[in-house]
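Standup notes
- DV: blocked on the single-chain target, sequence here:
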Amino acid sequence: MSFAWPLALLSLWLVPLAVALYVLAQYRRPKYAARFTNLDLLANVVEKTPGWRRHIPAVLGLLALATLLTSLARPELEHKVPKEEATVVLVTDISGSMTATDIEPTRMAAAQEAAHTMVDELPEGFRIALVTFSAGVRTVVAPTTEKAVVEAAIDALKPLGGTAMGDGIVEGIAASQLDPEAIAATPSSKGGLDGGQSEDSPVIMILLSDGANTLGQTDPIDAAQQAKELGIPIFAIALGTQDGVAVVTDSQGRQRSINVPPDEDTLQEIAATTGGKFFSAPSADDLESIYEDLGSRIGYDIETTEITVGFAAAAAILVLAAGGLSLLWFNRFP
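- DV (later): unblocked, structure below
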C-alpha cells in the first residue's frame, strides 16, 4: 500500500495523544469515586463494575480515529491488470552447447521447463511465437494464442549444431510480424513485415542463449539495431556458467569436450541497444525465476486504485460500533 499524500500521516500523532488522555482519565477515576463518602449507599447504587467492557468503546474509538487520519493520506493499492494484446517471441538457442550439464539435468531441459513457466504466466489473449537457432534458424510456431501448440513445440526441442544468434534475432523479428490467420487460423494480428509494432499490439522478444555467436550471416548487434528500429525490446538471458562443458561431435565425427561459457557481454549489449533488460541464469532456479518475473512483467500492467473511501467507511463503522456498545452496556454515548 502507498499514499498519495504521505505527509498527512504525521497527523497520526494524535492517536498516542488520545491514548495518553484516556489513560490519564482512567487514573483519575478512583479519586472521584473516593469523594462519594457513603460507600454503603454507593454499593447499592452501582450494581457491578463494568470491568474490561468499559474499555472496548474507547478502543474502537481510537481505531476509528487512526483509520480516519490514515484516510487523509489518500491510501492506494497496486494491483495487476492483464494486458489485452501483445506478441511475445521466444527466441531460443538449441545449439549443441545446450547439452552441457552445469545446469541440471541439462541446459536444454532447464530452458524447456522455464519456457513452460513463461507460457503459463502470459494472459490468454497474448500471441506467442517460438523461434529457434543453432547452425540455422527456424520459426517453429508462428504467433498464436493456442498455448498448447507452443507447449508441445517446446517439448520437442533438441540441441544440435552451432550458434547463429544474430540470424535468430532477425528470424524472431520476421516471425513477430507474421499474420497468424494466414498460417495457423488464429486471431488476426496487426502490422506487416515492414510495419513495425503498433501501440495496441506491442512485440516483445525474449532471447535465450548459452554461448557466443559462431555462425550466421548477421552480427547479433546489427540484428539488435534492426529490432530497435522497429521498437522491439529484447530481454536477453545468458544461460549457464563460465565453467560449463559440453560434449560435441567435430567435423570428423569424433566426440570431444569443450568449454561453453555464455556470451554475457554480447547479450548485455543487445538488451541495452533495444531498451530491454539483461539477465544471468547460472542455475535452473534462477532461470525459472527470470521467466516467471518476465511473464508477470510483460503480461500485466500495474494499476493504482485509491481506497480513501474504504478507510473512511471503516472509520464510520468503528464509531457506530463504539457508540452502540456504549449505549447497550452503559446507557450512554461515549
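- Follow-up: The longest strand covers residues 75-82.
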